[in-house]
Design goal:
The chain has 200 residues and is mainly alpha-helical. 70% of the residues lie in helices and 0% in strands. Helix 7 (136-163) packs across helix 8 (176-191).
Length: 200
């Protein structure tokens, strides 16, 4: 495949990961921090950037480890353990960076920053990358697209929740009820991109 074909395919993979196959709104992975942190746009933006950075970085690292260490040694069955170790180490690195250079954001994210380690969206992206046998370029595109899609979803949710007026919501739907309804409507909206580009 020529360079143009590789780039087009990577673009399709990134677009699909961000919109039609959004890891949060299609596969519902990473819902816990999504629902808990999406009350303010500022905090959501910080967590979104952290997830984008971690997801892209860990997809790249896990691709290298899987195809250049585990597969040659026939140790593919260890991929879950290796992926989790790589994710935990990378999140620790991000946590140290934020604590050093953005202490306010570090305090705002609180417990949810270490929870990125067990965010199933991060592990899910690494597993999808292996299952779909992406090339290195497509893996980078998938990591970027998945992270961008997760960030886009949490920013949209935070914007909606900041604008909602609680007194206009029926009492039985206040809190988790209206939040889950909004998530469902957002998932339907993202499904509207199906057919714009097709990728796997």
């Amino acid at each position: 495949m020529n360079t143009d074909g590789v780039l087009v395919q990577a673009l399709v993979v990134a677009f699909s990961a961000a919109f039609t196959g959004n890891i949060l709104l299609t596969n519902f992975l990473g819902m816990c921090p999504f629902l808990a942190v999406s009350r303010q746009v500022k905090t959501s933006m910080g967590l979104g950037w952290a997830v984008l950075f971690v997801m892209t970085g860990t997809c790249i690292l896990n691709w290298v480890v899987y195809w250049h260490v585990l597969v040659p040694l026939h140790l593919e069955f260890l991929r879950f353990i290796m992926f989790i170790i790589m994710i935990a180490a990378f999140v620790q690195f991000v946590e140290m960076l934020l604590e050093r250079y953005s202490p306010v954001l570090y305090q705002n994210l609180g417990i949810f920053l270490p929870l990125i380690t067990v965010n199933c969206a991060i592990l899910g992206a690494a597993l999808f990358m292996v299952i779909r046998e992406y090339t290195f370029v497509n893996t980078v595109a998938f990591g970027l697209g998945s992270g961008a899609g997760w960030m886009l979803a949490i920013l949209a949710m935070a914007g909606i929740r900041e604008k909602m007026k609680p007194d206009r919501i029926p009492q039985g739907l206040q809190g988790p009820g209206i939040t889950l309804i909004i998530v469902g409507l957002m998932a339907l909206a993202f499904m509207g991109f199906t057919g714009v580009l097709s990728g796997g």
